[in-house]
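Human: Here is a favour to ask of a fellow structure person. Comparing notes only helps if you start from a blank page. Give me a protein, with the fold worked out from its sequence. Please set it down just below, with no commentary around it:

Assistant:
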Amino acid sequence: MKSNRITALAFALSQILLSSHMLANETNIVTNDLVVALEQKLANKRGEIVRHAENLQTQIDTLETLLTERESLAGKAIELEKNRALAQERLDEEFRRLIENPDTDLNQFRDAYQATWTLVKENQQSTLQNTKTVSEQQRIITRENRQKQLLVSTLANLQEAKKEARVKRLRQELTVSDSIEVVHTITCSSLMTLAACANQGKTLTMQETVNMFQSHMLDKVTESTTAKLNSDRVSFNINVMNSNVINSGFSGDNLYVTRIQAEMKSHPDENAACKLLNFAEQYCVEDSFTTAKTVPKQRVKRWINMSIRSNRYDDNVTIDGVTYGSTPVGIMLPAGRHQLTVEKVGFEPYSRQIFMNKDSVIWANLIKQENRLKLGKGFTDKPSNNRQAAKMVVIGGGKYHVDFEAKQPVLIK
C-alpha cells in the first residue's frame, strides 16, 4: 500500500478517559516531602552561608584595619626614634656645657628627652598590642574559613541528597498503572478488505493509546517540563495488561473508527529518571529498586520504539500487514516478532522477520533490481545502421539439437 492510501488522522483524540491508579501514592508523598524538605534545608544553608560570608568579610576588614594600623605604628616608631635621638644629642650637648659652666640649666632639655622617650615607649606598647590583636584576628579568620568550607561541603551534600530524592520521586511517578480509552479514526483504501481495514484500525489505535498513555504520564510528573525535553532518550517499557475493542466501524467515506479501552502499566528502565533529569547514571544505581520490581502474574505486552530508515525516497513500509507510508517511520510496537517489509518499484524488497526486545533503529538497504531474463522471452538487438537484426529467445540449460535438420546435439549448462 502506498503511504497516500492510508493516512492516520488525529481527530480521534477527543474522548480520552483516564482513571489513574498511581502506584505507591503514600511513598510518593513521602518522597515529595523529602524533596521539599531538602529544598528548605538548602535555602536555609544558603542563607547561613551568606550570613557567614558577611561576617567573614567583616573580620577580614577588621584585620586589614589592624594591619594598616601596624604600618602606621611602624612609621611612627621611626619618627619618634629620630626625635628621641635628637633630644638626647641636645641633652648631651648641654651636659658638656655644664662642665664648662656650672650655671647651665638642664631641666628644659631633660624634660624634652623624657617626653620623646615616653612617646617611644607608648608606641612600642601600642605596637605590641596591635601584634597580639592581629594574631588573634588571623586565628578568627582561619577558624571562619574552616567554617566556610564546612558550610560549602554541607551544601554540596544537601544538593547531592536532593538529586537522589528527585530521582527517587521521578522513578516512582513513572511507575504508573492507568485505564485509558481512546477513539481513533483512519482512512482506509477502497482496495482494502474489511478485515485488513479493521486490523489496521486496531493496530494504529493501540499505538495511539500507548502514545497517549506516555504523554499523560509525563504530564503528571512533578518535573514535567524537564522530563519532556529528554523523553526521546528513555525507554518507558509500557506494558498492555488488558485491552478490548469496545466498538469499531465505518463512518463516512472510507473513515474507519476504532474505540479501544486498555489497562496499561509502565516499567521504565532503571536509568530512565537520570536520563529525564539529565543526571549522571550514578544516581540511578540502586539495587533495592530493581529487586523491588514485582513480576506481573498475567501475560502483558511490552511496547518498544522502532525507527525505520532506508537509502531511498518514496518507498513503502509495511509491518505485520499494516502500511505506515514512506521512510523515515517511527512507531511503537509490542515486543516480539514482527514481519517488516520496505519496498519500492524497481528495487529488491527488503523483507525481514525481526525480533524486537528493546528500542531499535533499522536501516533498510534497497538494491536496484537487475534486468533478469525469463525463459522463452524474445528480444532483438538494435544495430547502429537501423538494419533488421536476428530475433533471439532465452533458453535454459539442457540438451538441444541444432543445425540443419537438428542433427547436431548441444549440451547447455
Notes: Residues 300-371 form a domain with the Immunoglobulin-like fold (CATH 2.60.40.1120). The two ends are 41 Å apart (CA to CA). The first strand starts at residue 7 and ends at 9. The mean pLDDT is 81.
